[in-house]
């Protein structure tokens, strides 16, 4: 089922007997399902567990074919204020600017943030660059009293929490 939710239009072309009009219908239904599920997850009172956040981020970022860095801004009760894709890169990397991350957190009056980016390669293990970036962002955000709760590395099939690995 998850594979179907993340299926691209090109993947639908590979299905024998699925004509262009039907393919467009299926793509529209899949997009509506993704949006409905995202809205349902967003309306939860709290994103209070790594699993809830993992599911939400995987739905939002997991199927991207280029690297995206996103920030979830949360209030004091961990209610989602905003999920913003701040930086978009190539297949293997993206540039992240701490100043922009801090500005967006302040814009939303966030008490905390969850950082996230995807690895289109399918490997959800944090790299040394991911660790260094997390520490840099954590230090920058601490200057304005915004806590970094976690940093997730997301792929199509899994998401790794750096907090669960003891890296935050």
Description of the molecule:
This protein has six helices and five strands, in the order ααααββαβαββ. The two termini are 33 Å apart. Strand 1 (68-74) and strand 2 form a beta hairpin. The chain folds into two domains: 1-43; 46-161, Cytidine Deaminase, domain 2. Helix 5 (98-107) crosses helix 6 (128-142). It has a five-stranded mixed sheet with strand order 2-1-3-4-5. It has helices at residues 2-5, 9-13, 20-42, 50-61, 98-107, 128-142, and strands spanning 68-74, 80-88, 112-118, 147-154, 159-161. The chain is of the alpha+beta class and 168 residues long.
Contiguous runs where pLDDT drops below 50 for at least 5 residues? none
Q: What is the top-level CATH class of the largest domain?
A: Alpha Beta
- How many helical elements? 6
Helix percent band: 40-55%
| Mean of pLDDT | 84
Described by its quaternary structure, the protein is single chain
Strand order of the largest sheet: 2-1-3-4-5
Number of strands: 5
Q: Write down the overall geometry.
A: globular
H/E topology pattern: HHHHEEHEHEE
CATH superfamily of the largest domain: Cytidine Deaminase, domain 2
As for the number of domains, it is 2
Summarize the main sheet. 5 strands, mixed
